[in-house]
Amino acid sequence: MLTITAYVTGDDPPQLTLTAPPTGPGASAPPCTVVRGTATLAEGMALFVAVRRKPGLSRPKTIRFYRVDATRASTTWDVPISLDAANPEMSGEWYSIWALSVSAEWADFLEKVDGTTDGPLVIASAMPPHEGEAPSINVQRGAGQGSC
Fold first, then answer.
1. pLDDT at residue number 112
2. Is the bond preceding 21 in cis, omega lying within 30 degrees of 0?
3. Helices (H), the chain
4. Is 4's pLDDT higher than 50?
5. What per-residue confidence (pLDDT) applies to 5?
6. Are the C-beta atoms of 142 and 83 separated by less than 8 Å?
7. Which domains does the chain have, with CATH numbers?
8. Which residue did the predictor score with more confidence, 115 or 136?
9. How many other C-beta atoms lie within 10 A of the C-beta of residue 59?
């Protein structure tokens, strides 16, 4: 049985920003891209990046979660992600990317269950319990394909 404990940090919610990939007019992200940002997290929290293809296709809408290395999550950070990189037909599709502050215990549990050190930590159909606001950006995937 998994018990998820909420952490209360008082008046200091996490401070999260997303700074890359670019989102302006005409901007696109490569199929294998790097998400960058800044973070100030409370003790006992971990940083996740969530990626979901925007609605419009008939395929199930799933969210891929990437854990940001804990040693880099306290100031500026980056994490490589896939925008369905193996599928060249996804060129031009839009994706939403979020930064989330989640319980480190929960993140550790998922890491043990998954057992991988690269790629998404977990794929789910909904957002996990998280603390504070979850900033997001929308990016359009550029042409090409690859293995991230």
1. 80
2. yes
3. 104-114
4. no
5. 41
6. no
7. 15-140 (2.60.40)
8. 136
9. 8
